[in-house]
Design goal:
Elements lengths: L13 H6 L11 E2 L5 H15 L4 H13 L1 H9 L8 E7 L3 E9 L6 E6 L5 H12 L2 E2 L2 E2 L11
Antiparallel strand pairs: 1-2, 2-3, 3-4, 5-6
Helix pairs in contact: 3-4
Protein name: MmyB-like transcription regulator ligand binding domain-containing protein
Organism: Streptomyces paradoxus
InterPro entries: MLTR_LBD
């Protein structure tokens, strides 16, 4: 969520964010799920993409990087499951908004993924999301400082 231009190309990659060690991990925005389907689905989707684009150097390098830096990715990769990441729903704990539902929808037969962020209607989180939509996260006294978030309590 937010303006992706503030992040590098590498930081905008979901597979890298999920499996990479260190502070750049997606864990800086915790993801709540009812099951453990995301990681195997990402690996199966990458394997499927590699079949479709075997000469894509960036894709090959990404898989090599993740296999060498993440034991979990390497284990899932070695299982050999192939398949597109068709759709998924997860809850992301955004530092300024709170719990945001994230749906990933796919267009059959192509590589397009549509990511939709929603919050419960009428909730406090909906008010916070509206604030971000209207202000782009900039308060009257300046941009939101990095940290736990504008709406968090100590």
């Amino acid at each position: 969520m937010g303006d992706p231009s503030a992040r590098t190309h590498d930081e905008r990659n979901l597979a890298r964010a999920v499996f990479a060690p260190g502070p750049s991990r997606l864990a800086s925005w915790p993801v709540l799920q009812d099951d453990d389907a995301l990681k195997p689905a990402l690996v199966a989707d990458l394997r499927s993409a590699l079949i479709d684009y075997p000469r894509d150097r960036g894709l090959t390098e990404l898989v090599e990087e993740l296999r060498s830096t993440s034991a979990e990715f390497a284990r899932l990769w070695d299982e050999g499951t192939v398949g597109p990441h068709v759709s998924a729903r997860k809850t992301v704990v955004h530092p300024q908004v709170g719990e945001v539902i994230c749906d990933v929808l796919t267009v059959p037969g192509c590589d397009i993924r549509l990511v939709v962020h929603t919050v419960a209607a009428g909730s406090t989180d909906a008010e916070k999301m509206e604030f971000l939509r209207v202000t782009n996260g900039v308060r009257a006294d300046g941009p939101t400082p990095p940290g736990p978030g504008l709406f968090s309590t100590p």
